[in-house]
Amino acid sequence: MQLLPDPVRRVAAWCAVLLLVAGVGWVAVRLCGEFRTAVTPVLLALLGTALLGPLHRRLVRTGVQASVAAGLTCVAVVTVVGGAVYIVVAALIDTGDQIIASLREAAKSVSQHFGAAGTGLDDLAANSRKLLSKFGGTAASNVISGVSVAAESIAMAVLALLLVFFFLRDSHRAVETLRSVAPGDTADTLEAIARRAFEAVEGFMRGTTVIALIDAVCITVGLLILQVPGAIGLGALVFVGAYIPYLGAFISGAVAILVALADRGFVIALWALGVVLAVQVLEGHVLQPVIQSRTVQMHPAVVMLAITAGASVAGILGMLLAVPLTAAAFGVVQELRTRYAAPSDSSSPGSSNPAAPPPATSSDS
Q1: Which of 322-346 are b and which e, b meaning 16 or more Cβ less than 10 Å from the residue's Cβ?
Q2: Nearest Cα to 191, choosing from 203, 176, 212, 204?
Q3: pLDDT by residue (tens digit) across 56-91?
Q4: What predicted TM-score, i.e. pTM, was given to this entire model?
Q5: Would you give the DSSP letter of residue 119?
Q6: 69-84 in b/e burial notation, b at 16+ Cβ within 10 A?
């Protein structure tokens, strides 16, 4: 190595570091995939704790015992989430037929104008019996696998809820445990890094929920004014999709525009496009800077890359978890940069401090 030039040695050192980080990351991803039934509830519980932490702390400040406050918080989240899921499902059931019919009409009109022969929905319907007879042998196994996936999802949701209770109640013990396992004198640094990462996730979840609610209300009101069928269900879709930044808003907005195009015509579809674009402009230029000004700011390209990576690793769940985990990583990087930044010029040798008094001399004494 001594025979190599200094730039070559630096490049080799950076390559070694990048390979080490990539190897550790790959092993971590593989382990998370193998133990996904245990890792997924922990990650979901951390997101739920970040979202519900302010409510729990407010209850504790009012004099409620920590365990009771955690239980009341979990009951509140079950009530709110259960009610929201009921409203969303009821709205989708009531308006689902209209939305699907509108999407079918839109797809049929698109296929008539741009599709080739044999690619329309009528051809698919005509060949559906052949498809069913060809793949009917695997229907039972698919049903069984679907039931097992549903049971696994319910079990993970229950476990995540229990973990939220313990995370809220024993948050102080987590800090003490983290400090006890910190090597050497790094306890303060490790605690600061953990707090900064959790604050980033907490701010992201709280801000995203507020933004999703505002987006859903605005788009629902606009679609109701335009008399687009299924406006409530489309608004619920906008709210759920807002937790996947950029991509979720694009997909939900595209669905709303297609429904308006199929059911209300080209002019109403243009108005619906205007409503969606106006809400997106409001979100990007007003809501995001104001509501999430205290959280980690990430470039849209970084967010899209994180969503793509999360989708490739864990599908829809990876898309939901990618941005909060990236926000936590950005918080850790900011904390490390703050703690280990180079000293300022004022502390360098030869610099003078005008506010400091001049040194005493023998004539002054």
Answers
A1: bbbbbbbebbbeebeeeeeeeeeee
A2: 176
A3: 888 888 888 888 888 888 888 788 777 766 766 666
A4: 0.66
A5: -
A6: bbbebbeebeeeeeee
